[in-house]
Amino acid sequence: MKSKVMEFKHCVVEGTAYEAGKQLGNMLKDDKTFITAMTSPFMGGSKISKHQLTRVMDLYDKFCPGTNDEITGFADAIGANAEDVVYYFAFLQNRLSNCSHIVLTPSISENSQIYLGRNYDFHWNEKPLLIESRIKGQYNQIGFGCQVFGRFDGMNEHGLCITTSAGVINPEYTEEGFVFPVVVRAILNNCKTVKEAIELFDSMQIADYRNFIIADRYGDAALIEVAASKRALKMAGNTENDKYLFSTNHYNIPSMKELGYPIVKHSIVRHNAIKACIEASLPKISKAELKKILSTTMPEGVCCHHYEDGMGTLWSLVFDPMQMEVDICFGSPNINQWKTFNLNNPTGVKKYSAMLPNESATPDFWKPVSNS
């Protein structure tokens, strides 16, 4: 079996947005390949136009204040022009990810806690960054960075947590709007509760095809399925009939299913595994049982080792907003150990390594299937 050791960096920054960006630049500038990728047009395209740059900067100031200063600090540290930083393409571009995520509300979880867990699955050529920030004017937060300034997921100082997964594999983009890393960062920066997050979400123009799960320390949770301007909401929690939510890489809310977007087999397999595991564990589910779902390989669980095929688990996490902790496993949780993090780590960089065991996917792994 082919395997690879992957390095993960945990970067902790604080101060003004400019200072935090400069700290990140200094932490990352020695990785020339990474810096080239972060300062080149997205996907080998053309440079962003002055008109579009101004437009995106204005939108960042509106929804994610401090982003432009953070980018400027980063650019100054690495000796680049701020307008060349790839994150300015995040109003139009997309980043594929094949993920599973689950939220358990207090009424069905052991110890009456709320837990939001997820696996992030992709190719092993990634360079994952766990970023913890204490930036003036923003809520303190921890989560995995996407293009440094965006987030794949995260939890802030008020216990507001968010995770995402692709709703459609390789969609065709036909509308303008933000893609998920900006949406996630804006919510972490500005929102204390699921209600506030939904209000901010509704005000944002989104081009992405994405599933979002949001949870707060008060026991409320929401699944938002988005196909550009089309979106649907499902709630769970204290006053809702649903006590848990989960998502993989397709839509399940009836109004979104009706849109008829293609679905791949592995998404259905993971969806069915999550449902079966939760229903078998009711009426009460522990954090350990949630981790077991994330750690068990398909088809019984959702962990994947198909790294060279673009579907290997790079990290897993379980947010515990009532305790203000997140348990993280770097690499496959089937063979690597979990570690606990909070929001009080000292500034600087700490490195972790994890083993990624590659296995070839079966020929029908990416096969289109129906969602009946």
Automatic annotation (TrEMBL):
Keyword annotations from UniProtKB, A to Z: Transferase
Keyword Transferase in annotation: yes
Matching NCBIfam families: C45_proenzyme
This protein's name: Acyl-CoA--6-aminopenicillanic acid acyl-transferase
Domain Peptidase C45 hydrolase stretches: 111-334
Classification via InterPro entries: C45_proenzyme-like, Ntn_hydrolases_N, Peptidase_C45, Peptidase_C45_hydrolase
Organism this protein belongs to: Anaeromicropila herbilytica
Keyword Transferase: yes
Entry GO MF terms: transferase activity
Pfam families: AAT
